[in-house]
Amino acid sequence: MKWSDLDDNWCPVARTLSLVGDRWTLLILRDCFLGLSKFDEFANSTGATRHVISDRLKRLVEAGILEKQAYSDRPKRYEYILTEKGREFGPALSAFKDWGKKHLPIRRASGAV
Amino acid sequence: MKWSDLDDNWCPVARTLSLVGDRWTLLILRDCFLGLSKFDEFANSTGATRHVISDRLKRLVEAGILEKQAYSDRPKRYEYILTEKGREFGPALSAFKDWGKKHLPIRRASGAV
DNA sequence: ATCTCCAGTTCTGATTTGGAACTTTATGCA
DNA sequence: TGCATAAAGTTCCAAATCAGAACTGGAGAT
Q: How far apart (Å, rounded) are the C-alpha atoms in residues B27 and B22?
């Protein structure tokens, strides 16, 4: 089954996943809530390849979760801002955060003493 | 960057994603909350390939989110049950559900009139 | 004997990624 | 002038992952 086939699923969780239930997409959204908004910021912060960042931003804009806003005209430059729809995704990320804090305590970096 | 490199990330959201931030994994967890517990149930319900179901169940058991319990001895058969750690992931799925209900209303199936 | 069920495993071709280089528009600087 | 840098993508190739279907193996049912 293809991923996109879920967008009409009876289950709202499945529909949500068909849109944002992807590794990097959720990480990009986390970054948005942390205040990041530019392409390179996402690329550096998430560690995803530029290819993937490009693709995911496109989808998020199409879905109305992010909005592409010009912040410079001369060299046309855009930043990505959460829409209301996007901001309302906050609780979901909070739930991830809480669960991670409780159940996945950070281990000391393997090499460091 | 590899996905698994996130498991020591400073951000609890990233750590959570490194474990369950995968299309099918979250769908399997949803099924668990709906009361499903058997391999074929997950395969049929999610539409993921058996290969993927097998892999994800293994990971979830390793991570202590699901527990493999024998429900039949003669033909050794197992079912997968949420642990306490797994049950505490409920709020995250609820948040997805709420967001999906509000922002992704189900469209009439494209073909049907 | 043969069929069916369940829980996986295995195989192969197609899709998606990762990683790095390249492009475009514009600024800084010497 | 000429070179370097920056942001936001795009393009290319090899490698990893996935979809789909078939196959395995134990056990009860017909």
A: 9
